[in-house]
Recover the amino acids of this structure.
C-alpha cells in the first residue's frame, strides 16, 4: 500500500477469485462428514440490479443459459427487502459441481457485461441434521467465504458459523473479519 493511501484511508480492493466457487463441492464433503450438513441443491447470486435495457438483457441471457437444455435446474429471480436481486438456481442436490458452475457463470456474465460493481455475494444452501439451514456465502468483493446460519427471526447460530469456518479453513479462503459476515435474512434457500 502506498503512503498516500494510508494517509487518505483508501485501500486496494482485493481481487475476487471466482474459481474458488469450484472448491465448494469438495468442501461440501467435509461438511457432510464433519458436521452432518447436506447440500440442498439450491444456490443463489445476490446483486444490485442496474437500470436499463442492457442489464435486463444480460439477466435474461443468464436465466436462459442456466435453464436451457435437458435436466436443467429451475431458475427464478426475486427481490429482497433491501433492494437486492437474487438469481436462484434450484438443482440436483447430488450435483453440486453443476450448481457451482451455474453460479460461476452468473457472476462471470455480470462481470463481462460491466455490472461487477453490483455483485454482492453467492450462496450455496445446506441443511443441518436437525433441519436447520446454513448458507455457505462467497463474498464477491473480498474473494472469501463465511457461513450464515439463521435460526429464527433476526437470530443466527454463531457457534455453527464458527464451526463451519474452522472445518473449512484448510479448503476454502475463509473471511477472517467477522464484521464482514453479513446477515442474509430471508435469503432464498435459508
Amino acid at each position: 500500500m502506498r503512503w498516500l493511501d494510508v494517509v487518505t484511508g483508501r485501500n486496494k480492493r482485493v481481487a475476487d477469485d471466482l474459481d474458488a466457487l469450484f472448491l465448494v463441492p469438495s468442501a461440501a464433503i467435509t461438511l457432510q462428514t464433519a458436521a452432518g450438513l447436506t447440500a440442498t441443491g439450491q444456490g443463489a447470486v445476490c446483486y444490485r440490479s442496474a437500470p436499463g435495457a442492457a442489464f435486463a438483457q444480460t439477466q435474461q441471457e443468464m436465466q436462459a443459459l442456466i435453464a436451457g437444455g435437458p435436466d436443467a435446474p429451475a431458475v427464478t429471480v426475486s427481490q429482497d427487502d433491501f433492494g437486492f436481486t437474487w438469481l436462484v438456481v434450484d438443482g440436483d442436490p447430488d450435483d453440486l459441481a453443476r450448481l457451482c458452475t451455474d453460479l460461476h457463470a452468473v457472476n462471470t456474465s455480470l462481470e463481462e457485461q460491466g455490472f461487477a460493481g453490483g455483485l454482492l455475494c453467492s450462496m450455496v444452501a445446506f441443511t443441518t441434521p436437525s433441519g436447520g439451514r446454513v448458507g455457505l456465502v462467497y463474498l464477491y468483493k473480498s474473494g472469501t467465504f463465511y457461513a450464515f446460519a439463521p435460526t429464527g427471526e433476526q437470530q443466527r447460530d454463531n457457534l455453527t458459523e464458527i464451526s463451519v469456518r474452522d472445518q473449512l479453513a484448510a479448503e476454502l479462503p475463509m473471511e477472517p473479519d467477522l464484521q464482514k459476515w453479513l446477515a442474509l435474512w430471508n435469503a432464498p434457500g435459508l
Observations:
- The chain has a mean pLDDT of 90.
- The chain has one domain: 18-180.
- The longest strand covers residues 38-47.
